[in-house]
Each structure stands twice: as C-alpha cells, then as structure tokens.
Protein: Efflux RND transporter permease subunit
Organism: Derxia gummosa DSM 723
Amino acid sequence: MDDRNPRDGALPSPADKRAAGADAPLGVSGRIAGFFQQARITPLLALVALLLGVFAVLVTPREEEPQIDVTMANVFVGWPGASVADVEAKLATPAEQVLSRMPGVEHVMSVSRPGVAVLTVQFKVGVARSEALVRLHDAVSSNADWLPQGLGVLPPVIKPKGIDDVPIVSLTLHSADPATGAFALEQIAHSIETDLKRVPGTRDVWTIGGPGRAVVVELDPERLAGAGLAVGDLRRALQSASAGAPAGELVTGNRAIAIEAGPFLRDADDVADLVVAARDGRPVHLRDVAEVRDGPLPATRMVWYGRRDASAVTAAGAQPTLPAANPRADGSPGENATAQEVPAITIAITKKPGENAIDVADAVIARADALRNTVIPAGVELSVTRNYGATANDKAVKLIQKLMFATASVVALVFIALGRREAAIVGAAVVLTLTVTLFASWAWGFTLNRVSLFALIFSIGILVDDAIVVVENIHRHQALHPGRTLAQIIPGAVDEVGGPTILATLTVIAALLPMAFVSGLMGPYMGPIPINASMGMLLSLAVAFVVTPWLSGKWMKTHGGGSQALAGDAAGPAEAAPSDGLHATPTGLAARLDPFFRRLFAPFLDVRSGSRNRRLLGLGIAGLVGLSVALPVLGLVQLKMLPFDNKSEFQIVVDMPAGTPVEQTAAVLRELGAHLATVPEVTDWQSYAGTAAPINFNGLVRQYYLRASAEMGDIQVNLTDKHHRKLQSHAIATRERPALQAIGARFGANVKLVEVPPGPPVLAPIVAEITGPDADGRRAVAKQVRAVFERTDGVVDVDDSSFAAAPRRLVNIDRAKASLAGVPQAEVVATLRAGLAGEDAAWLHDASRTPVAAVLRLPAERQGDLDSLLQLPLRNARGGLVPLRELVTVSSTEREQPAIHKDLLPVVFVTGDMAGKLDSPLYGMFGMRADIARIVTPGGGTLVEHFIRPPADAWRDYAIKWDGEWQITYDTFRDMGAAYAVGLVLIYLLVVAQFGSYLVPLIIMAPIPLTLVGVMPGHALLGSQFTATSMIGMIALAGIIVRNSILLVDFIQLERAAGVPFERAVVNAAATRAQPIVLTGLAAMLGAFFILDDPIFNGLAIALIFGILVSTLLTLVVIPLLYFSAFARGEKS
C-alpha cells in the first residue's frame, strides 16, 4: 500500500497543517511561546537558571582529566624458598581460577617469581571500588584453604589501587649541604607527614626514598666464634628482651595496682647492653661480639633531585623557572648550563574521592610552606615537583575563557546577521543554556575537567541553533507582517519552526547520546561529551521556547518602530505576504539570494536536461566521497587513537640487567641526569633508583608502583611551562630519546621515554602477547619478535618481559651432615638470611614516628664476601658451634625466569612504541606483520596472528595476540561505529514519525556521507591525524546536518501546501532557509574554532569546521534537488 499522496509524496505533515492559515490552531511550541512570552514567572525562571549555573561553577570539583572509576588490586602470596615452577603451579594458577570467576572482572594477571606470586585483578570500568574490593576479599578469604596449612604459604596480602591512589602533589626535600644526606631528609619528611595529613581532603601521605632507620647489629663471625656464640643466640636474646605484657593486677590496701612486665628495648644503648651469654662468671654484652649502631640501613633505594643551575631554586608553590643558560642553536647548552644533583626525599600526597584537586593542592603547598624554618630546617629546600591542582586550574581557566570567547563570537555573528537586539537575545539564551547545563553536569556527577569543558565549547555551536532559528524566524515574520504586534507574531513564528526545531534537536541527541555507551576506559573518559551535549540540547530547546519569546517581546522592535535588523531585511507593505505567512515571492535577504539560487538550480530543474544534470551531479558528489574515503588508505590521513598532549612532564624508565646492584643503577641515572642538564626545556628532575617514582594514571595501569628492584630506576622530568617554550613535550621527548638511549646502551640499560598518554593508558602502545605450549619456546619466539620490533623503522622503546641471564648461587644444605650435627635446616636458612638480607630480630619502643627494628646482618663491606657468610657459626644440639661452611655446598646457576599469565594463559610480552613521522602505533604494528609471518616457531610452524581475542587453544601452536593501543582503538571505534549506526537508525525513526513517510527521511539523511568530503580533506590539509575525537565530530555532524535538511524539506512542504509550484518551492526553500542554516553552521564552526589549538581535541574541531563548511554548502543544493527528483514524477502525474 502506497502512503504517499500525489502532491508531496508523504502523509499530511505538520507543515500541511501549519500552512492552512493564520487561524489554524497552534502546536505545542506555539502554545508554550504564547504562554511564557507574557508570563511573570519567565524572568524568574531565567534568574534561577543563572543562579544554578553560578552555584555549579563554585561547587563543582576541578580536575585536569576525568576521574575514571577503574579499580585494580594486587594480591601478594608469599611462599619462602619455593621455585618459580612451584609458585606457578601451586599458587598462581589456582588463584587465577578463583579470582577470574568473580563478576565484573576484566583481566587477571599473575607473575610468579621465586618465593612469591603477584596477582593483579583489573575490574571492568564502572565497577564501584567498594563493591569490587568486597568481592575480592570474599573470593580470597573463602578459598584460603586451597593449600595445606603446613606447606609454608603465607597469608595473602591485598593491596587495592585506583585513580585516587595517584598523587596530585609531590614535594621534594633536598639540600646542597653535604652534612644533610638522605637519612636526615627522611627523618624530616616523616616529621611533616602528619602535618600534611591534617589538610582537609588529603587521603594518603607517604615518603619515597631514604635508607630507613634501624639499630644495626653488625655480625662479626670471628668475635662470635671467640665468644662461643651463634647467630641464633643473638636472635633469641633480642626476641626475649622484647617480651613484655600486662601481668595482671595486685590488690592491696583496697586498691588494684596494674602490674606490667618489661621493659622493652628503647634505644641502641639498650640493645648494646643486652647480655647474650656469660663467660667465666662474667656477662657477655652484645657490644662485645658485634658492632651496634643506630642509623641508616645500607642503601637499597636512592632518590636525588637535579636541576640545570644551582640558582634555579624552586619555592613551595612556585613553578620552576628555566635558568638563563643561553642554549646554542643546536640545542646544546651554553656556558651557564650546569647540573646540580643532591640527595632528596619525595613526599607524595593523594586526595579523597570527589574533592577539588585545586583546593587540596593549594592547601597542602601552603601547609608545607608554613613549616619552613621550623620543622623543615633552614638549610633544606622544598620543591613542588608535581602540582596537578595547578595544571587543573590552568586548564579550567583557559577553557572557561575559550567558552566565553566562543559565546561572544556567536553573539557577534548574530549581531552582524540580524542586529544588536537579536544578538542580545541569542546571547542571553546561550548564557542561560550554559549555566543550567553546568548545573545539570554537576548533578550528573561530572567534574570540571578538560573533557567536560570541551564538551560545552564544542556544544556552543549547536546549543545556539534553537535560539537562532527562533529569533531569525520572528525577525522574518516581522518583515512579512509589519502591521502586527510582537505579541501576535511570536507564537505563530515559533510554531512555524517549532516542529522542525524539536525534531532537529532530537536528531542531534540521537546522534550523540549512543556514544555514552562506549565500553572500556574510553567510555567514561569521553562520556561528558555526549551526555553534556545532549542535556545542553534539551535545555537549549526549553530556553528557546520559554525565555527567547519573552526576551523577543521585550527587546525586539517592529520595523515600523525602528528596526535594528540587517539593512534591507525590512519589508514594506507592498512586499507583505499573505496573512498565512507563506509566499511565493521571497522577501528581504531571501529576495537577494533568490536570483542566485534560480541560476544555480536552473540546469537541474530544466525539463529536457535536468534529469541528466542531476545524475551527473550525483556521480560527481559520489566521486568526491570516494576520494575522501581513499585518503586514509593512501596514507594522506593517519589514523590514531589520540594524539599526544602538550604536557610539562615526561618519565624516563630505566631497566638494568637482572642482578645489577642499586649503586650501578644510580650511576646510570646520574649519567642520564647529566644529559638532561643540557636540554634547554628541562627545569628539574627527580631520579629514583631501587624504588618507584610517584605514579600518574599511566603508571597506575602499567603498575609502575611495583618497580622496586635494585636494577630498576625512574627519572621524573619536569619541563618549562608550555607557554614559555616553542616545542611540545612530545617533540622534546622524540628529540632527546636517541641521546638518552645511547647513554643507556653504554651501560647495558634499556631506557624508555614514557609520555603521559592523552587518554586511557595501556601496557605499551604496541604489545605482542606470545602464547604457546612451552615456556622456553615462548621465550625463543619472543626473542625473534623482539628482533622484528627492533629493525622496524619508527619502532622504539623495545622491551620484553623475560630477564637476561643473571648468575645465581645455590647454597645447598647437606641434610645428612646437618642432622648428624644436630642443626635444624630452618636454623641454617635463618642464619643465611640474617647474614645477607638482614633479619629484624626485635623492635624498639621509642618515640619515633616509624617502627625501628634491631637488625642482624653482616657489615656492608663484607656483604659481597661469601667466605664471611660461611664463617657464621650455628649452635648444634650438643651446645657446640658449627660453622656454616661445614653444612653446605655452593653451586652456580642462573636466576629463574618469571612466569607470567594473563587471563589464565602463560604469555611473554614484547612491547614497543612508535616515534617519528608515523607516530601512530597502528602503522608500526601492521608494518611488521610481513616479518612476523616469516618467523619459524620451535615446532617448525608459523606464528599465528590474533587481533581481537587470544587463541582458543594456546597449547597447540605458538601464537601472537596484538594488544596495546590497537586493542583500545579497535574497541573504541567498534563501539563508536555501533553508536553511529544506532544514531542513524534513531534519526530515521524520528524523521519517519515527523513526516509520515519512509522515503523523505532517506532524503533528509542523504547529506550525512557528504561530511566525509569535508572531514578527510580537512585532516589532510592541516596534516592532522584522524583520531577518536575526529570520530566524535563525525557522529555529531550527522545530527547537525540532518537539522539543516529538516528545515529545507519542511519549508518545501510548507510552500507546496500553500500552492506554490514545485520548482519555485525548491528555489524558495534554499533562498529562505539559507540564512538560518548558514548562521547555525557558522556558529558551530566558531565554537569548534576555539578548540582547534588543543592537541587532543584538534580532530574534533577539524571534523566540525570542515565537515560543516562543505556539507552545509552541498546540503543547500543537494536536498532541494534530491527532494525534487524523488517526487517530480508524482507531481507531473
């Protein structure tokens, strides 16, 4: 059954009804405008909206990036003495199976090392932290009996991690005074932790670096043997002296007196005076057989602070400044560029969830500054080495300024096009829409961050559309009906465009809102854009129908009373149209555009050649779309998840060969620091050897907080403010990478430059997960894959998860000899550990803020002497002494490789990054596929590639699963593509409901592909990458362009319903609706112009500017002609 009528090809639409005349009843929009244009409550509603916005700006927390609710947790399970194979089979694998069955889990990973299993549980984005941790604790505790109690496995320790564990402020204490070393700085840092924790909004405060304080009992094998004592005797004496407890109560004289047994050990003198034996009736004190000192432990972690010039002192709360070094043209330093590196301690501070990062950071820095010259001695400097509150505030202030400029530019546009009164009305409508949208954003739970503010800036152009369309139509009706009052004109004018405006608003929302359901880390990161923009569109519609008519009635003037409209728009009585508001002859600006569109459309409306010309036009446009789609295929437009942002920091991650002592790692970091002193853009850096630097969100996901081994080091590099340097941080990192990696190569170090990612972080930009049936085979394949990475152009920072061969010595206990000597094996193990790693035999009870242990260990100078270790005596069952060397044999071997599992599969990771001209990891990954295909596996086969999911049978063949930025790019663009498709379906359904036709919506949506003609060439022209934000722009364009089509088709139907000839109606539609269409398009382009300079949202701006520019111009031609082509045959019949 055909539902089209012969005149317009559709069921009677609202346009037909509105065309019936001025006396026709008003629709919903007209009745709303008529009620509120004279209602006393209207200005009060506007005032409330304004106050709500002010309230939202004052109370909404400000942050630099959106707070993504991603919860991770590490589960540490110790098993002293167990091999990697035992830990993997008996601990890690069963634990993975238990943890992976919890609901809401994204990934479960494990690393099995000698004596310990570290499991990482990553929950899906959006799972609440409290809920996730309850599930985790329940799963661990309810399965605590999976291993026999006597096996020696220690209880699991759960350490949750989340976005609130990222420090927003780090303070670094350092001093140029040689007498103030790391130990003294550590004590100062501990003394100010409590003061900083008292700052409202702080969550955790902790100290990074320092050797730690202890009472060290340095074992002397010769003195112990001479006194007839074993290490176990000292241990038992210390433990016995640490015993103390309430003994009960003594009741005497009708009073209860508490009795306590003790005392505890309180200082080093108590430890040294401890009697450990008696000889010839005289006591033997601990000081007689060992050196006892209260002080720093041997350094296992080192931190120091470096800067380019000794005069570049950074005060608390001040930004570091670049010293006057006069760098040479090649970037090398001038004569004044020097480096100063001194021992340091870093204090990291996190904030509570929901707190304003700016307020907390400012309060912390102010409190620390108040401690100068009191708790912090005069010779100790305090440098603010991280202040995410300041960066968040700078970003927020800058974006709010852009928001104001964007609003002002749109108002100026309306002023030029329509006049100052109309511009004032539109400006007021935009301000009210923004303020109430800010309140709605706060109520939804968003913070003021770069994404939510960019969403508002991006939305300016579309939020103003409703007001522009309403004001422009009121303005036009003034010209059509000069004899009527505004009170008579406004309801009908609003009603005429009300239906299309409602439909156009809903189509924009239909295009944007599905993006809110993008999964993974990218969903909540970009979530404020579709949600804020959709809420803004609904609110702008309400403002356009409620406040705009009231303002128009108060501020606009009739043409007879002196119009402020654009010159030439006024229509005299002779030009007045019929009273129904529809006309065959355009007036005002439309009259001036009418000849242009007549000439433009003439070849396509010609009776003889029009059909052929329209087909040629369609083929030409299709060719342009095809060429635009080909640009990425030809490499003229690069595809990337997100471009790098311009930050004021980057990180250098250093991995030395396994077994490297911390002193050697520190030496490499100092060499790297010496090079940083030559970089003009660097202000200061903090080096961390044997301990992790304060993490950022990237470090949280990559678990950099676990980098606490002696062979690991980090350097946190701070750059000058981005406003005071020419190069972006990515360009600086790319420039310095070769020199820094060359320094590392001299020492056998793997040096990687890690930049703050612009969006959700991943393990590495390029990740290859190698699976297979055999551990040695997996490592062999990974070695070949790593070689491919290293010889692929542009691939940098290559690494893998296996260790280089490192020596290991096994001290094998001869059980037979130990049994005959009456020495338990546990005593041998404890003595070995005490001699090397040290043993906390007792704890002091003093006034220190941190626990202080009495530690048994060999002196530092004898730590590398195995003979000294084997001379330590043990006491046998008969009371005699037996040296260690008589009970053990020593053999040499290699350290065990760690066993890594991901989602129950054993894997070896090969990682890399992409730098250079093609810095998108996708091109590096696909560029090495040919070489990957030539790899021969240990079984003689080829390596099977997987892109989306891991292999179904990982034990059959060796396979490679690509991960990293590829995975998040695939997931994001898959979900965005689905959101795009859902949006198109919703738009189609909305337009069908409005126009009552299945064909008209297809005509209205036809310009959507035309956006490609602007988007892709625009990226190519500006040399920008097509990113996820570019895709967001394309999705938004679908709704924006459909709005224009709706206005055109609705007007054509209005004209035809009034009896205007088909060809004339087509020309009138283009001429009359050109002004509001171009105005709204320019408004959206102006809003996008203000985010064009942002590295991340540059793609969104390009998509909107070029997409709207090209598609708007084409829509004014294509839609009228396409509508004519579709229904011209029915018109003739």
Q: What stands out?
A: The CA atoms of residues 79 and 150 lie 11 Å apart. Residues 1098-1132 form the longest helix (35 residues). DSSP finds 34 helices and 31 strands in the chain.
